[in-house]
Amino acid sequence: MPDVRLASPQGRWILFTTVLGSGMALLDSTVVNVALPAIGRDLDADLGALQWTVNAYMVTLAGLILLGGALGDRFGRRRVFVVGVLWFAAASLLCGLAPNTGVLIGARALQGVGGALLTPGSLALIQASFHPDDRGRAVGLWSGFGGIGAAVGPFVGGWLVDGPGWRWVFLLNVPFALLCAPVAVRHVPESSGGKAEGHFDVLGAALGAVALALVTYALIEAEEGSLLVAGSAVAGLAAAVGFVLVEKRRPGPMMPLEIFASRQFSAVNGVTLCVYAAFGGFFFLAALQLQVVVGWSALAAGTALLPTTALMLLLSARSGELADRIGPRLPLTVGPLLSAAGVLLMLRVGPGAAYATDVLPALLVLGLGMVTLVAPLTATVLASVDTARAGLASGVNNAAARAAGLLAVAALPLLAGMGPEAYRQPEAFDSAFRRAMVLCAGVLVAGSLFALATVRRPAPDCRRPECRTHGSVAVPPLEAGRRGGSDAV
């Protein structure tokens, strides 16, 4: 039984290094959007390259995050966490030194691999290290500090872009990693899931990542209408079918398909796909709109986005308590509708927009919608499966949200009619942005209606979330299993 106490020096070091490690990946997922216009100007990149700057990271992270948790269970959670931290730092260094968009996109994909190793490992180390009496508080502090990191991410990104330059958005990870890794080696006890037999589902993970990458490529490059684009779309769909077949037939799949036998689990993941597709598309385009059309600096744009994450950080725990009393159906119906209203209020944000009267009301309403739905969504995911599979269920839900976001970033500019040079043409970008906001709102309304039709109140004795405080706008919180590991091999 783990026996480290939170008040001990070792306990504080464990909390420090896990927060720092997961914070790097969480910060990177929110800070890059603010830097995109500066990256485009410096590297002479078109809109497609900017989309890939975001999505290359998300493809590998979403495709490999379940496998990353299984690797920690097998080879040691601390070992895999440290490897992930150092891998992430090396890839960040390559991003910061990238001479062109090709190198930057490749380095971002490598960053996602590192993120897939360290993200599940950070929470697993908390779960596996602390005494049961302190574990809940440790998880609460871990998620709370992580939420603070997510909240300040856009502000930090804007300050770096306007100051030392966009490359420091990535280079800042290197000193953090060089501090995090030695502390982990010295102070964090090693642990594993005790699974010494069986095979890793490398084929399933590879097929999932390849399917996402090919479909993303086809969506980003669809305007070309070439045979390569059409072939990529077909190959991506074939890889997706192959992924399902492999997961169905393997003895130890990364994502056991029988987990979807729970109608509640399938339903809440459908809601997840809708809401996080809309959120991913919104935050990608909003950061560009505030700089390209409104004319704000990166710092001003990043600061402007703070209210949504601040509201989630302050109110997510209370939202979870409310959902415990009234059930998840109403919050999961009302939350997307509030978010849709916030997205539509962004139609007021154009040339000469004022923060107090145009931008802030939209972000406050959007933030309240996110507060309303995120905690109940996570609770419903955990309640819809057996307790032994809680970690797996959370991992699948987290990966689904990431996949929805990256597909939205790929598809939304296409559906809104944004050309490759749109972000250099304020008037054209503004028109396409307005169409995109209507599409995002429509997807959120669809998620609301789907929740109303399918989500039911869970049993009273079901598993409850341990991560009560949450600040990420990109993904729902990641929960570990009872023993701190992923339930997948």
Q: Can you offer a commentary on this structure?
A:
The C terminus is likely disordered. This protein folds into 3 domains: about 190 residues, Up-down Bundle (Growth Hormone, Chain: A); about 55 residues; about 230 residues, Growth Hormone, Chain: A. About 60% of the residues are buried. The longest helix is centred in the N-terminal third of the chain and has 35 residues. With about 500 residues, it is mainly alpha-helical. It is globular. It contains 16 helices and no strands.
Quick recap:
With 489 residues, the chain is an all-alpha fold.
Write the layout of secondary structure elements.
Elements: H1 9-43, H2 47-75, H3 77-97, H4 101-129, H5 132-162, H6 167-171, H7 173-187, H8 202-220, H9 227-249, H10 263-292, H11 298-304, H12 306-326, H13 329-345, H14 355-383, H15 390-416, H16 426-454
Region (Disordered): 468-489
Domain Major facilitator superfamily (MFS) profile: 14-459
Organism: Streptomyces tendae
For this entry, give a set of tags.
mainly alpha, cell membrane, MFS, Growth Hormone, Chain: A, transmembrane, single chain, globular, disordered C terminus, 3 domains, 16 helices, 489 residues, transmembrane helix
- At the fourth CATH level, what is the homologous superfamily of the largest domain? MFS general substrate transporter like domains
Contiguous low-pLDDT stretches (5 residues minimum) are 482-489
Give the H and E element order. HHHHHHHHHHHHHHHH
CATH class of the largest domain: Mainly Alpha
Measured by DSSP, the beta-strand proportion falls in under 5%
**Helical region count?**
16
Which outline best applies?
globular
How many discrete structural domains?
Answer: 3
Sheet/helix structural class: mainly alpha
Q: Radius of gyration in whole Å, from Cα? A: 21 Å
